[in-house]
Amino acid sequence: MCGINVIIGTAEQRAIQSMMQATIHRGPDHSDFCQVSDNLFMAGNRLKILDLSEMANQPLWTKEKDAVLVWNGALYNYQDLRNKLLELGHQFTSNSDSEVLLYWLKLHGVNGISSLKGMFSLAFADLAQKELLIARDPSGEKPLYFAQANGNWYFSSEAKAIRQVLSNISEINTQQFPYYFFLRHAHPEKTFFERIQQFPIGTSWVINLENGEKITSPWTPHIIEGVEPSVDALTENLKDAVLKNFHAERPVGMMLSGGADSSLIYALWYEETGEPLPAYTITFPKNFKNKYRDPDFVRKLNRHYPLLHRPIEITLEKVQGNWVEYIKSVDQPIGDSAGFLTWMLAKEAAKDIKVLISGAGADELFAGYNRHSAFATYLKNPQLWLNLRKLGLHQFLPTSAFKFMQSLSEDPSATFIQMAALEKLPSILLHELKQHYPKSQGELKRALEWDRTWYLVNDVLKIHDNACMAHGIEGRAPFLDHEMIAIFQSMTETQHLEQLGKKWIKAALNERGLRFISKRKKLGFGLPLAEWMSDKAFQNWVFPPINQMAKDWGTHFPEEMRTLATAPHKAKGRQFLQIWNLFLLASWLEQQKL
Length: 594
Fold this sequence. Notes:
Blueprint: E1 2-8, H1 13-22, E2 30-37, E3 40-46, E4 60-61, E5 67-75, H2 78-87, H3 97-108, E6 118-126, E7 131-136, E8 145-149, E9 152-156, H4 159-165, H5 177-183, E10 196-198, E11 203-208, E12 214-218, H6 231-245, E13 252-255, H7 260-273, E14 278-283, H8 294-304, E15 308-313, H9 316-329, H10 338-349, E16 355-357, H11 362-365, H12 370-380, H13 382-390, H14 399-407, H15 412-420, H16 427-434, H17 443-469, E17 474-476, H18 482-490, H19 493-498, H20 503-511, H21 515-518, H22 529-532, H23 536-553, H24 559-566, H25 575-592
Helix pairs in contact: 1-4, 2-3, 6-7, 6-18, 6-20, 7-20, 10-17, 12-15, 12-17, 14-15, 15-16, 15-17, 23-25
């Protein structure tokens, strides 16, 4: 719901003001900064969602002026924490979750982080202890970046805010090109800017304000005991998550695709409240409607659960007309056309609402992607598939089958990493990625955890946050509620295999007479790139910037990336995805020169 900026060390006031101004779109309702001490500046941009009064503006101080907080996110269990503080004699001046968080951290410090249920990145300064606490939620719903340069620490909700004050020493990080080409995004510990890094998810730092030393503390929320994973547990906990995520004092709406995840969320909301909400759906011109049928399924859902349908038509001309504005808003390039669609949807939704709900996270928690089913097929008889691959027949198979066969390895972790990549990974990059692969028990469970902590955090959630915050909207995802994560983590390998393809979510839809949605073939959320690739107008728009990027940056590209960027007209098969990603990267790199 906000943007945060922090500088520890010797800095001029204009530096924190510059960072605050760079993230002002994240909190259009109020922005302010303060010099907390001789070597600490903090700034906050506020988007008002709960308690619309001035009492919850940031930076937020305790009454005694001995602690101060700036943070970004929402605390869904703030009422429970508030009641505990009331029992201890605390008195509140607002009804905000911000004030609860401030006094909770004042009382418990870093040990209080594990009690928080929500999405957040935060900076809390305890002046009595002379410490600064920095933390980011375990699901990575809210971004946080940092740099250590010029003897200072810098923290911000967006990397470009830090780069703005480090422009003389923070150039483009060319080492991220291979990660972007094969995985769609920079390495999770890095960014496309030299010296600026991503703050790790599920981690807190305590920084000594006197000497700048830090103590790192990875953490997880308190474990929920007695969770019995089942379709009933999923439905009941998701219902609670929906009510918490939809709780706001500003208008709420939904990204509704007519797919399983968003449809179930909306159904549960309406069952509990009987209140129809704005539902925003991407649609395309008539010649694409046989394939892209989201509006049709939303209209069918509307017969069961009344909603305020808001279709948003996207054409190539509309993409071109909004492209420059979109690229200016992109903090870090992510190769996913869903980023632009979400941005356009949020732009329209911002006329009416301030909170936008999505179904993000369901595919990663409950095995909804095609690669999960493909990986499970491989796990049933790896040797059979490896033997078939040796015959070389996959060279003549359709694209999806070819990708499956090309990904196979005797090592299950290498197989899934290849399945999740856009193209076959070079051996050096694959070896490096394997060092980060989860160590949990169960091959499918490890694969899902990889998608949850890499793809979900660095692609899906990042583009959702970036798109929403560009228009002053808070994005929320009920499937990533604390209890939903607990169900996922409590599931055995057998249970993951049994409900492959989100069978529990589909069962919940069937119980509500929504079998037409549960039986719908999965179609990714994105632009009609395969169809546009044969359009001369599209080619003339995207090919020249890609060619120019190859000339400017090609020496830093991996071979596969350089080959395609030099001759984008030779793209074949699923490489239309890569063409779009290269175009987005070329546009973003050009923007960094301005």
